[in-house]
């Protein structure tokens, strides 16, 4: 049996179709199908049933998946531990955060950080999804929720207020137009909260990033919930009184295996300093 075939079983089990599995592995669909057939012949067992337009794992496949996932966990743990042993302040560091935090706080301070640490290569990724630190999707995640998993450690970057903003000088007649997130199940809580905070409003436009929401507000399409470190310094925006502010503590999160790596420590210090400087742009 070719152990490399196990990743194809994992991908098809998780993706459900040859096309999506191929995208996960960056190979074409025929390669996925060929490797699955080769493993089925080697094991003398059927691993997937074709149902409709997708594939369903058989009991035999589920046994293979359990073993493969355990191997994947061990491989990821080994990779993190080896990276964590590197005592040089150099190498790659991947940071994931929401785009307003990256654009307003991280990016302006980045040139000075890279001048101090020319051996570090920084990758910034903005996404509403939660990146999986245990699987190596990122080295540091900036989030507004403190993690509860014991393998993750968090450093507070401070508390930041968020408020309702509109394009300066706008006067709304009748209902208040709101800018929300896309109408998908994972965003339902945010959109419901938005409407609950503004009972006289309704969502008229949606965007999938904070930066796009901010741009729609600046164009005068509606009001949006925007970080004060973005809204206050922008002369084209004004905060709407009467709605109050929401205060959220922000955390820089790393895997316990990586927390002592010098490049990760240096980056955590950088994020803490950059967040402290941005605190002056927020509402007292």
Automatic annotation (TrEMBL):
<keyword id="KW-0238">DNA-binding</keyword>
<dbReference type="Pfam" id="PF03466">
    <property type="entry name" value="LysR_substrate"/>
</dbReference>
<keyword id="KW-0804">Transcription</keyword>
<dbReference type="InterPro" id="IPR050176">
    <property type="entry name" value="LTTR"/>
</dbReference>
<dbReference type="InterPro" id="IPR005119">
    <property type="entry name" value="LysR_subst-bd"/>
</dbReference>
<dbReference type="InterPro" id="IPR036390">
    <property type="entry name" value="WH_DNA-bd_sf"/>
</dbReference>
<feature type="domain" description="HTH lysR-type">
    <location>
        <begin position="1"/>
        <end position="58"/>
    </location>
</feature>
<keyword id="KW-0805">Transcription regulation</keyword>
<dbReference type="InterPro" id="IPR036388">
    <property type="entry name" value="WH-like_DNA-bd_sf"/>
</dbReference>
<protein>
    <submittedName>
        <fullName>LysR family transcriptional regulator</fullName>
    </submittedName>
</protein>
<dbReference type="InterPro" id="IPR000847">
    <property type="entry name" value="LysR_HTH_N"/>
</dbReference>
<dbReference type="Pfam" id="PF00126">
    <property type="entry name" value="HTH_1"/>
</dbReference>
<comment type="similarity">
    <text>Belongs to the LysR transcriptional regulatory family.</text>
</comment>
């Amino acid at each position: 049996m070719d152990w490399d075939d196990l990743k194809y079983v994992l991908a098809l089990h998780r993706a459900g179709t040859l096309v999506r599995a191929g995208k996960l592995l960056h190979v074409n669909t025929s390669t996925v199908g060929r490797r699955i057939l080769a493993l089925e012949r080697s094991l003398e067992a059927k691993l997937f049933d074709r149902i409709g337009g997708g594939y369903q794992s058989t009991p035999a496949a589920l046994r293979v998946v359990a073993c493969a996932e355990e191997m994947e966990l061990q491989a990821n743990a080994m990779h993190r531990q080896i990276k964590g042993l590197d005592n040089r302040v150099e190498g790659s560091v991947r940071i994931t955060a929401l785009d307003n935090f990256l654009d307003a706080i991280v990016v302006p301070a980045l040139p000075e950080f890279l001048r101090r640490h020319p051996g570090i290569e920084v990758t910034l990724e903005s996404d509403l999804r939660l990146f999986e630190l245990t699987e190596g999707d990122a080295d540091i995640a900036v989030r507004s929720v403190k993690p509860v998993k014991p393998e993750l450690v968090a450093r507070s970057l401070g508390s930041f207020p968020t408020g309702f903003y509109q394009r300066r000088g706008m006067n709304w007649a009748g209902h208040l137009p709101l800018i929300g997130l896309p109408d998908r199940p994972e965003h339902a809580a945010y959109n419901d909260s938005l409407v609950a905070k503004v009972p006289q409003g309704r969502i008229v436009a949606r965007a999938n990033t904070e930066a796009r929401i901010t741009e729609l507000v600046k164009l005068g399409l509606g009001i949006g919930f925007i970080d004060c470190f973005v809204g206050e310094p922008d002369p084209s925006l004004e905060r709407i009184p009467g709605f109050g502010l929401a205060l959220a503590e922000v955390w820089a999160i790393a895997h316990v295996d990586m927390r002592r790596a010098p490049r990760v420590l240096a980056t955590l210090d950088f994020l803490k300093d950059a967040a402290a400087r941005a605190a002056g742009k927020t509402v007292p």
